[in-house]
Design a protein that fits this description.
There is one protein chain. 79% of the residues lie in helices and 0% in strands. By secondary structure, the chain is mainly alpha-helical. The longest helix is centred in the C-terminal third of the chain and has 38 residues. The chain starts with a helix and ends with a helix.
């Protein structure tokens, strides 16, 4: 339970954090110095972030599965403790135990610390031998793991299966209820069918694995042959396979929740993001214009401070400002100058002959 909680905490912030780092690093490598980088909120920036985010989620999903498998291997099992194959018979198990017991017997320890460690290891070997040489306990151990050593009032295979199923039912009932609640509140809209299908398949696989006298064909004919042929991974026992399946489904559901916003209607988010970016730019321009207006009013107030209260000086200042605007702004405008030129040309054309020639005579 604690490992699942830590995994969920990691899923809440690590993918987004790593996506931001990778995107910044990618822009630093792929874009030359001086060239503009895609700004947050632009369609190009969102497209790059979406692709990087998907890759990060998939890689993190594979990593969590590998991490779960690593801890399963670190925990070990009775077959690895005795260093025997999973199909070893009772004679092979006892022979191997006698050999290891002769080597690691506590009486051969020299120091008290070595004696304590040897005692713990010897008890572990004895538990492995007692469990694997008992047909009923071996059946239960392969399907439920070392937890069976603490079960009480169980003596037959039926008893072990009954206790094991009773411990698994609350997990599935609580998970199913939690999924239904999330679906009702609208959290599991995308991929809801696949979630339920995977959840039901997991329950059927676990029920088949726990109740059948033989191992799952998928485990014996597909998974374990692949692991032992192409890797140094030891073969998985049924309880180890179920533990990995639980972890895989749990992380798959979390990954699906984070992938759903990235795959749901890819065309609409781009348009909405573009309109949101435009709206953001307009708001920024509006704020800039308002700040410019406030600053201009403040500067104008400072310039008008010497004539505040003097009506004659204010009228004189207004007249000079008006004259300056007319001379430097209105008359300097190209369209105004062109209109005045056309008007003066028409006036010269419509004037009498003596008036048209009087102007040159005055110039001379």
């Amino acid at each position: 339970m604690s490992s699942n909680l830590l995994s969920y905490v990691g899923w809440t912030f690590l993918p987004n954090l790593v996506t931001g780092w990778i995107q910044s690093l990618w822009y630093g490598i792929s874009i030359r110095a001086g060239d503009p980088k895609p700004q947050p909120g632009t369609p190009r920036y969102l497209k790059h972030r979406r692709r990087i985010h998907i890759a990060v989620i998939v890689i993190y999903l594979l990593y969590t599965i590998y991490e779960a498998d690593y801890w399963v291997r670190q925990s070990g099992d009775f077959y690895q403790d005795l260093n025997i194959p999973i199909n070893a018979d009772e004679k092979k198990i006892k022979s191997r135990f006698r050999r290891l017991a002769a080597i690691h017997h506590p009486d051969k320890a020299v120091s008290p610390e070595d004696h304590a460690n040897a005692e713990v290891y010897f008890v572990k070997l004895k538990s492995a031998q007692d469990t694997l040489t008992d047909h009923t306990k071996r059946f239960a151990y392969e399907r439920f793991g070392p937890d069976i050593l603490s079960w009480q009032h169980v003596s037959s295979i039926r008893d072990y299966i009954s206790v094991g199923l009773q411990s698994a039912i609350p997990l599935y009932a609580g998970s199913a209820l939690f999924m239904v609640i999330l679906s009702v509140v609208g959290y599991l809209q995308w991929g809801r069918y696949w979630r339920y299908l995977v959840f039901v398949c997991l329950g059927l696989i676990e029920y088949h694995t726990l109740t059948r006298p033989y191992w799952s064909p998928f485990l014996t004919k597909v998974l374990n042959p692949l692991l032992t042929t192409f890797t140094s991974h030891p073969p998985l026992l049924p309880f180890q396979f179920l533990a990995l399946a639980h972890k895989t489904v749990f992380t798959f559901f979390i990954a699906l929740s984070q992938l759903s916003p990235l795959f749901a209607r890819p065309n609409q988010p781009a348009a909405s993001s573009s309109s949101a970016f435009d709206e953001q730019q307009l708001q920024r321009l509006e704020q800039m214009a308002m700040s410019t207006e406030v600053e201009t009013g403040r500067l104008l107030g400072l310039e008008m401070a010497p004539v505040v209260g003097d009506e004659a000086a204010q009228n004189d200042l207004k007249g000079k400002v008006k004259e300056w605007l007319v001379q430097n702004t209105i008359r300097a405008d190209p369209e105004v100058r062109d209109a005045i030129g056309r008007f003066m040309q028409k006036r010269r054309v419509g004037a009498p002959a003596g008036a048209r020639q009087s102007a040159p005579s005055r110039e001379t």
